[in-house]
Amino acid sequence: MNRAVPELKNPRIDEYFTIAGGNFDDAGRVSSRIKSILKEIDFPREAIRRAALVTYEAEINIVSYARTGFIRLRVGEDRVVIDVIDEGDGIPDIELALQEGYSTATPKIREMGFGAGMGLSNIKNFSDVFHISSDINRGTYLQMTIYTDSEVSGGKV
User: H/E element holding 99?
Assistant: First the structure.
């Protein structure tokens, strides 16, 4: 399902979260918080699951590869929009980075159980609409939109 994303006017929720690069002890905090926020407003269960999943993957990427990052959660009546901005080295080849199994993880990151090369592909597959851009030596921007009426499952509609 690929929809054009109209501007989300007057979101029910509009919150920002900061993530410190390299802080694996705190990894998962933001995605857990977003999951809780969406549960509190009785958002559809499947939309909550996918929002938590894409946020977690983005959060792990920030912790693994960036100096710092920010996640913005916006919730409308029919969708969740998650913006992710990191300050890092950037992605030189986005098409390659989106391939399942491709990873630039260090041995240290792999020893902790991360860096399998599924993060960006999972984000893309579990979003109804996905945008990515990256500037070398500046950072990466992602935007994921999840609609409440969508039945995306692992990239299948």
Answer: none
Q: Which two tokens stand for residue 9?
A: 């006017």
Q: How far apart are CA 91 and CA 111, in angstroms?
A: 22
In CATH, 13-147 is 1.10.630.10:
no
pLDDT in tens, 72-110: 999 999 999 999 999 999 999 999 889 888 787 777 877
Chain length of the chain: 157
pTM for this model (two decimals): 0.87
- The CA distance from 136 to 87, in Å, is 10
* pLDDT, tens digit (0-9, with 9 covering 90-100), for 120-138: 999 999 999 999 999 999 9
Q: Which amino acid is at 94?
A: I
Please tell me the distance from the alpha carbon of residue 103 to that of residue 84, in angstroms, as a whole number.
19
Tokens describing residue 117: 């090369």
Q: Helices (DSSP H) in 1-157: which residue ranges?
A: 29-40, 45-65, 94-97, 107-111, 119-125
Tokens representing residue 70 in the block: 């920010």
| Tokens representing residue 154 in the block | 């692992």
Q: What is the residue extent of each domain of the chain? A: 13-147
